[in-house]
């Protein structure tokens, strides 16, 4: 098998946003990531790149469009190929001040989690990763989210080599959106990104192939989900 073929089997970027049952073109609304060609992960949870993994921390935001999305509707991140690693998926949002296409957006303690997909566990099956090999992950923009400009940060924490510190692989993308028809909800708990993880959480530093005898199930890292 050629290296090219091998590399084309899985992809760890999700450049397309699914809005109104329509798929956008690559990087239209998702800030182009530094791994758009290499597919390499972020592994340093305190690096500024951990926020959006941008190609260029100065120019990418202004070169990316902002999608209008309706509160309560389903949105997705779509990859050009299967996201092949066993892991955990989640989605964070932050109000974007002064605008979604500004680099200043999301630099404070303003992020909240709106969705997650954890592996399931039982004594007989061990961890089961139903999300392995999906092409797209979907979530609902909370109906009561106040209207306005936001970033939506999708994250896959790939856990196949997460048994030592710094081994977990983070695949990240930030979409720029303008939420309309929202409500008066108060999202929280709020966290900073980077800052939300130390890298030592039991859901990040974990040997999924050799769980301790007293294991009782996957513990998602980060704050609880705000559903609106
Ligand atoms: C992680 O990123 C922080 C902030 O940029 C940096 O200080 C630190 O040296 C990095 N750690 C590693 C292991 O590269
Ligand atoms: C999605 O639909 C809403 C409501 O019709 C519209 O305002 C918005 O522009 C659409 N968004 C995109 C990205 O097409
Ligand atoms: C996300 O939605 C799309 C479009 O409806 C669907 O094809 C896809 O299977 C969904 N992804 C998951 C993981 O459910
Ligand atoms: C599980 O066992 C390990 C030692 O193997 C121990 O450090 C840990 O505290 C135990 N956890 C629980 C929840 O009992």
TrEMBL record:
GO annotation, cellular component aspect: extracellular region
Keyword Oxidoreductase: yes
Auxiliary Activity family 9 catalytic domain ranges (all copies): 13-213
Any GO MF annotation of the entry: metal ion binding
Keyword Metal-binding: yes
Cell location: Secreted
InterPro entries with a match to the protein in the record: AA9, AA9_LPMO
GO terms, biological process: cellulose catabolic process
Signal peptide: none
EC number assigned by the record: 1.14.99.56
Reactions catalysed: [(1->4)-beta-D-glucosyl]n+m + reduced acceptor + O2 = 4-dehydro-beta-D-glucosyl-[(1->4)-beta-D-glucosyl]n-1 + [(1->4)-beta-D-glucosyl]m + acceptor + H2O
This protein's UniProt keywords: Carbohydrate metabolism, Cellulose degradation, Copper, Disulfide bond, Metal-binding, Monooxygenase, Oxidoreductase, Polysaccharide degradation, Secreted, Signal
A Pfam short name: AA9
EC category: oxidoreductase
Cofactor(s) the protein needs: Cu(2+)
Family: Belongs to the polysaccharide monooxygenase AA9 family.
Protein's UniProt name: lytic cellulose monooxygenase (C4-dehydrogenating)
Lineage: Eukaryota, Fungi, Dikarya, Basidiomycota, Agaricomycotina
């Amino acid at each position: 098998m050629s290296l090219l073929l091998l590399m084309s089997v899985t992809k760890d970027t999700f450049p397309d946003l699914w809005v109104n049952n329509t798929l956008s073109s690559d990087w239209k609304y998702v800030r182009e990531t530094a791994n758009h060609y290499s597919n390499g992960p972020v592994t340093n949870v305190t690096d500024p790149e951990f926020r959006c993994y941008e190609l260029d921390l100065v120019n990418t935001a202004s070169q990316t469009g902002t999608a209008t999305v309706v509160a309560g509707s389903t949105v997705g991140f779509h990859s050009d190929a299967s996201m092949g690693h066993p892991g955990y998926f989640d989605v964070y949002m932050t109000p974007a001040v002064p605008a979604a296409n500004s680099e200043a957006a999301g630099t404070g303690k303003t992020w909240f989690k709106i969705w997650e997909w954890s592996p399931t566990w039982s004594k007989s099956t061990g961890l089961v990763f139903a999300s392995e090999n999906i092409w797209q992950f979907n979530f609902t923009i909370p109906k009561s989210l106040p209207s306005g400009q936001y970033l939506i940060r999708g994250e896959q924490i790939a856990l196949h080599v997460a048994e030592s510190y710094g081994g977990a692989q983070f695949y990240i993308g930030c979409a720029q959106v303008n939420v309309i028809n929202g409500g008066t909800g108060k999202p929280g708990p709020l966290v900073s990104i980077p800052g939300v993880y130390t890298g030592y959480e039991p859901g990040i530093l974990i040997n999924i192939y050799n769980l301790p005898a007293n294991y009782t199930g996957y513990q998602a890292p980060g704050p609880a989900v705000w559903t609106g």
